[in-house]
Amino acid sequence: MKIGFKSDIHLDFWIKDLSEIDEFIKDVLNPQVSDVLILAGDIGHYNEQNVVLIEKLSKYSKIFLTYGNHDLYLLPDEKLKYSNSFKRLDDFKSMVSKIEGVYFFDGDLIEIDGVNFLGSAGWYDFSLGLKHGYSLNYMRENWEIIMNDSRMIFPKIDPVNFSFSHKEKLRANIQKADIVFTHVAPVYISCHNDLILDSFYSFYGYDLLEENVKYWIFGHCHKPMDFYEDIVRFISSPLGYPHIRTGKKGINYLNLKGL
Ligand SMILES: [Fe+2]
How far is the CA of 179 from the centre of ligand 1 (A)? Predict the structure, then answer.
């Protein structure tokens, strides 16, 4: 089975309008025919653009996707259409779900040729900072200052509660999953070499690393990563922003011969 994976495409940073999308797909993503393409969130700020991208990518493979923090943002244009970030998300979900071979994951488990895929956005929970002795209030104050998530998602979320609800959705199906994908990493990663900032890039998911889980694909951090935690291989393939790109162009592929 050939599985592609990519995150953090941030489409609206790459194209000025939809007239440029075919060139973007060819030159930047360069998709190959595969069984599944996993898109691990942060597709872009505009539903209309995102849906066209997914529709075009669905010609190459089944698309398994979840959302990231930016897929909840309401920039001025989207704010004219949606008063609430979750209405934007619902609209996106209903549009992509109508495309043949496209599956939106929000804690869902889908089996393809004997391989079980589990996907959810996942959300950071500040636990890295808390583990190092910072108070919840201190973490929250920093989040308000540092993260646009505190200003661009309406109504304002509480990251700790939001993270908990995502984690419970994963927990419900984790014992059946072979491959998991989330936007946010479930183990601590060093994305910015800064303890506070890095606390906004992971959640405590060590208790989800069941022995049946072989791969965990994630995003959010724009640095590509590939490492093991226990027997789980953690991999990311972020595209990132064109002006400060640390990710790689192109989609990464795994060729699995039985799990
Ligand atoms: Fe993100």
Answer: 20
